[in-house]
Amino acid sequence: TMDTANKVPQIMVVDDDPDTVSILSRHLQREGFGVVAATSGAECLRIVQEQPVDVILLDLMMPDMDGFEVCRQLKTSPATAEIPVIMITARDDLDARAEGIRLGVTDFLAKPVFRRQLANRIRAQLDMAATGRANEAALHQFEENQKK
């Protein structure tokens, strides 16, 4: 088995604006994360099927396919359903958040995104995912022991 403790978390940045992608990528790299970039929803969905990522930073307002639709599709595939999604939105409106939550978005960040806040939110998601995996492993072990 791979030692996941030493693995650099891979964060996918999905935004149709190349400047935003490069700013967020720089922020993330400075914080010690690996970055996988996508400039459209379709590109995001294609890449995650081939390359595992730990957290997806997803812009809501994109042409062709908005963040809601990307999230909907991520959640329908078993390969990507468990990946935490942090939605980035310029609109701080409650309707967008409610819809996001309904679709399984785990957190929200409003633009402009600040590096510290970004790093903290991502670490929180990574911690929760790790805790979830530890709990699942413990539960599995418990169930195995019950069978004996």
Radius of gyration equals: 16 Å
* Helical content class: 40-55%
Number of helices: 5
How far apart are the first and last residues' alpha carbons, in Å?
A: 25 Å
**SSE succession:** EHEHEHEHEH
Please state how the strands of the largest beta sheet are arranged side by side.
2-1-3-4-5
Instruction: Tell how many strands the DSSP assignment holds.
Output: 5
Shape: globular
Q: Uncertain segments of ≥5 residues (pLDDT<50)? A: none
Structural class: alpha/beta
Summed up:
With 148 residues, the chain is an alpha/beta fold. 51% of the residues lie in helices and 16% in strands.
Would you give an account of this structure?
With 148 residues, the protein is α/β, with parallel strands linked by helices. Helices cover 51% and strands 16% of the residues. It contains five helices and five strands, in the order E-H-E-H-E-H-E-H-E-H. The chain has helices at 18-30, 41-50, 67-76, 94-102, 115-147; strands spanning 10-14, 34-38, 55-59, 85-89, 107-110. A five-stranded parallel sheet has the order 2-1-3-4-5, with helices on both faces. Helix 2 (41-50) packs parallel to helix 3 (67-76). The chain starts with 9 loop residues before the first strand and ends with a helix. The relative contact order is 0.14. The mean pLDDT is 89.
